Amino acid sequence: MLTVLLQSSNMRLLLKLPFVITAMLLVSKSNGQLCSGSLGDPVVNITFGSGGNNTGYTPTSGYTYTSSTCPNDGSYTITNSTTSCFGGSWHTVVNDHTGGGAFMLVNASYTPGDFFLATVSDLCPNTTYEFAAWIMNVLSRFGIRPNLTFKIETPGGVVLQSYSTGDIVETGSPVWRQYGFFFNTPATNAVIVLRITNNAPGGNGNDLAMDDITFRPCGKGVVSSAIQGSSDTVNVCEGNTNTYTFTGAVSPGFTGPVFQWQVSVDSGSKWKDISGATALSYQRNPSLPGVYWYRLTVAESSGLGIASCRIASNIVVVNVHPNPLVNAGTDKVMFKGDSVALSGTVTGESPVYFWDPPLYISDITSLTSQVAPPANMNYYLYATSAYGCKKDDIVFVKVVGGIYVPTAFTPNNDGKNDHWRIPFLDPLLNASVKVFNRYGQQVYHTEGQQVDWDGTLIGMPQSSGAYVYYISYKKHNEVVNMRGTVLLIR
To answer: 139-149: string of b/e by CB count within 10 Å (b at 16+)?
Structure first.
């Protein structure tokens, strides 16, 4: 259980969060990553949520919670932003440290004092941890500067170690700075208190924002990993069948290290142990398209199963890029001597594309090129993505000589001219063909199909005589209509 208390000399503000932690001993501080070895995932990560309320905080006397994003002296808020406070003497802050969340905004009380306490327990014994917090001086002009002291104490109040930030100077624009230290836990579990004290008074400045308070295990040695021994990133295409060997290395400092490779498919938000991948090397098999992050985690044999004991290597990445999506369009039909437009589509990661063969085509690099082949021809649309991934598709262009409509047929089942058919009226023309008897009754109709009338209507033979036909189709996006008669002879 992690218990957090915010207070001044006159106030106590209690926060209880479900985190696990233990005794610590201060070692050092720096900006950026504080640990000189390898880090694990945060065991405690106070991000102040998404803002807009005071969930988890119980104010008493001294500091008071306000929903205003410009809190007065002795007040604080949890917010996503602050704008144009106190005549513009505060920075306009539009994001928390990481972006998209909230931060704690404090206008210091007039009396210096503690404003953050955390009691932690149950970390792994004999392990190094990094504590860090991100702080911003929100004052945009000269004034009283925040000056913080981090202390590690026993529950009885004995100071084990402390570190002071000194004055946190004002800046011309909003700047988050990371402060903290790393520490070793004792051989047996204990309970410690983290105390953050503001050494300066309020009144004319000493206004600060705080975000992303973390405790992370820090390894005794450096853990590293690579792909095939050297690279940390591999780009492959969908369908690639290569396997890749990840290799790990651990510097001295572990007594009995145990290993576990992990994978993340959401850019490190969540990590999953890879079953059976418990050696310094791991062979990755082919997979579906996606971005895959891998890392090697290490712990002493007694603590591998405990997340707070693990440290992790650098991340190695396998990007499996999808092949371009290529569609050369539907097959085409054209009359000899005319032309027809190809209508392909290509999507993907910045693909380049072309038609092949480059014969009888207006532009091989245009998806809507005109083609005029003298005979039937296949055109291939080839595409290559920015990562060299390839795909192609084919369209068939059928060249017909023209439409000849027979003027008579004899459906008498003698095997000769028993059906009325129209040569070269290809289904690709999507023609509509209708036939009517002398009474105006429709006796035959087809749409986008081969014309094949056997002289019947619903299975009943029609009488001899002249029948009127109507044919309609598109040519160069213009509708062509044909009308004539066909003689049915029995």
So the answer is: bbeeebbbbbe
